[in-house]
Each structure stands twice: as structure tokens, then as C-alpha cells.
Amino acid sequence: MKKINEKGFTLIELLAVIVILGVIMLIAIPSISSVMTNSRKDSFIRSMDSYIDAVRNMATSGTVKYLPDTSKASVVSLRAVDLEKMTGAEAKSPFDALWQTTDTSTEAYVVIWNGGSPASPRYEFYFAGRDMAGNCIPLTREGTAERSDITTGCEITPITESTTTITINGNSGINIEGNITLK
């Protein structure tokens, strides 16, 4: 009797490997997706900090006003902020979508507000931003943003040339002055 060459895999063995790989994929893909989303949210927060730092530099150089009156705030559209690798109009969020800004309205901006008193100012910086894909963070004080703050569909007060007030830290009716042009 002649022996049959037994090199290779049977159909059952190949199907078992395919099933095992499928199970591994079902487990791995959501985990990788979650890691990527968290990474983008962390980048969103770092971008927020970069924009705040840029606006702080603009205020220090006199381009933006520090307003000592606690009933007033300066608002700066992201279109007016140039970062190292992008200009305001071309800037994208970490989710690779342009910020929600036009020549007449913005839903991506930095606010400077005196949280102290006129005699003893304590300037606070806030960021609100929505990108064209709907990812957003509502008006959030510098240094307090968390991953869970970044969602889709959050409420952001759009700033237009006719917007006169904004609510900051529960204080409604803060007058917007020293507005940087939206263009």
C-alpha cells in the first residue's frame, strides 16, 4: 500500500482558523476604535489649550483687549487665530473637520472674561467649539475640559456680529466687547 502525502491543512482546520480570526477581529475593532476616539478627544483638548494660549498671546500683545469690567468679555473667533501649522480659516479639529466658522458667524471661539473684580482682575479663558462634523465642546473654562465634555450635538451660543451677550459660568448677560472680526 502506498502512503498518501499528508502535507497541508484540512478544510475543517482552515475553517477553524478563520472563525478564530473573526472572533479576534470582533473583539479588537471596537477596542481600537475606542482608543482612536479617546486619542482624538485628547487632541481636541490640546487644540483647545493651543487656541487659548494663542489668544492669551494676542491679548498680551494688545491685539485683543483684557476688559476689567466683569460685565464684559472679549470673544475671539478661531478664524482670527493663526497657529503654527494652520491659519484660522483653514484650521481643522482633531476629528479632521473644519471648525464651524464663516465670515458672519462662528461656533468656535475663545472668550476672555474677568472672573475677579475691576479692582482685582482675575482673567479667565474659555473655549467653545463645534466642527463641521458636529463634534463639539460647550463653553468650557481653561484647564477643566475632560474627554466626556466632547460630544456631538452640544449647545453652543453662535457668535455673530449682532450677538451682544453671552452666559459665562452661570452669569448671563455678559456683554461682548472687543470682538475680533469674524473674517
In short:
The protein is an alpha+beta fold.
Could you tell me how far the N terminus lies from the C terminus, measured between alpha carbons in angstroms?
89 Å
Molecular shape = elongated
Question: Taking strands numbered 1, 2, ... along the chain, how are they ordered across the largest sheet?
Answer: 6-5-4-3-1-9-8
Unreliable spans are none
Which structural class is indicated by helix and strand composition? alpha+beta
Helix content: 25-40%
Strand content: 15-25%
The radius of gyration over CA amounts to: 25 Å
What is the count of helical runs? 1
Number of strands: 9
How does the major sheet shape up? Answer: 7 strands, mixed
**What is the domain tally?**
1
Overall mean pLDDT stands at 86
Q: Helices and strands, in N-to-C order?
A: HEEEEEEEEE
